[in-house]
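To illustrate the input format used throughout this study, we show a single complete record. The first block contains the structure-token representation of the backbone; no residue identities are included at this stage. The design step must infer an amino acid for every position from geometry alone.
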């Protein structure tokens, strides 16, 4: 335990010093990694207990567009718009999740329902082009550096906001992964019928996980759009975004606390590398490669990058048997 606390303290010190050591471009990547990392962590928390959603881009889009539209149309500060987007995402999760879990729609059927949800939200954003800008996207009204507008010219300030949110999500994940609730969720992931026979309220537990994941995803989408200052159905909603969330969480390791954030760094590196390598000659390169890599990770590395590293470290720490004389 002492070693873990020391490692955590060193890690926090490094994260606190990072914005003063990085060049502006790499600081920009670090901020995106933290914001996307908390979104991928929210999905990974569901995935580790057997709830596979292919439509989390819907919650990300709802959060991003709600806060941006409230600011642009009515002047409502994002400090109120972000919670509003979270509440709307929670309502959407309840509308979809309750009938699915009540009727025992699980596995690939639940994944298809969420996939349809993500596409419906993206199409609604495109259809409401007079308000949302449609497929051309929209930009939140810029006012320069303003705490009320949640806009900062200095990226260091935004880095510490992103870091605080990321630490809060990681702390919430650690708290929820302990005690009887974790045991109940693991039992549900293994066998719902047996879990219900043991006295676990399956509907309540699954709905709780789904709603919390949707709320965190909406908050991350709102703040991500506030940082980028541009919203587009292809970047904050839709099937492509949902696929990227799934790929990052699985590739990094959804069973590890830092796995989804590692996945965020991987996806950002891939995106930037492909942008430099292909330019505008192969627009769909990112999603195509995400799909291929997702298949390879599921087949050969189901526990992700950090899962492989942890297994290797466990084998290395295991005492070797003494050679026979």
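Output of the design step:
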């Amino acid at each position: 335990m002492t070693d873990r606390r020391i490692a955590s303290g060193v890690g926090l010190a490094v994260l606190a010093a990072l914005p003063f050591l990085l060049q502006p471009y790499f600081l920009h990547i670090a901020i995106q990694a933290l914001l996307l990392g908390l979104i991928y962590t929210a999905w990974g928390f569901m995935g580790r207990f057997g709830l596979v959603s292919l439509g989390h881009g819907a919650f990300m889009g709802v959060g991003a567009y709600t806060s941006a539209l409230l600011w642009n149309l009515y002047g409502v500060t994002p400090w109120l718009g972000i919670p509003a987007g979270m509440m709307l995402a929670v309502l959407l999760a309840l509308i979809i999740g309750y009938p699915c879990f009540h009727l025992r729609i699980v596995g690939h059927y639940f994944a298809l329902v969420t996939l349809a949800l993500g596409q419906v939200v993206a199409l609604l954003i495109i259809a409401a082009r007079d308000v949302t800008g449609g497929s051309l996207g929209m930009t939140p009204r810029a006012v320069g550096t303003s705490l009320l507008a949640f806009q900062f010219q200095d990226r260091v300030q935004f880095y510490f906001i992103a870091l605080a949110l990321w630490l809060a999500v990681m702390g919430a994940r650690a708290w929820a992964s302990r005690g009887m609730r974790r045991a109940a969720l693991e039992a549900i992931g293994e066998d719902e019928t047996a879990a219900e026979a043991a006295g676990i309220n399956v509907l309540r537990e699954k709905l709780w996980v789904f709603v919390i994941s949707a709320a965190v995803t909406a908050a991350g989408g709102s703040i991500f759009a506030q940082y980028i200052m541009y919203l587009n159905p292809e970047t904050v909603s839709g099937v492509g975004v949902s696929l990227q969330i799934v790929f990052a969480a699985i590739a990094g390791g959804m069973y590890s606390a830092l796995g989804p954030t590692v996945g965020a760094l991987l996806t950002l590196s891939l995106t930037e590398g492909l942008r430099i390598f292909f330019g505008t000659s192969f627009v769909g390169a990112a999603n195509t490669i995400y799909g291929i890599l997702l298949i390879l990770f599921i087949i050969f590395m189901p526990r992700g990058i950090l899962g492989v590293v942890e297994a290797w470290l466990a084998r290395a720490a295991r005492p070797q048997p003494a050679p026979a004389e």
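Structural context for interpreting the output: The chain has a mean pLDDT of 85. The chain has one domain: 8-236.
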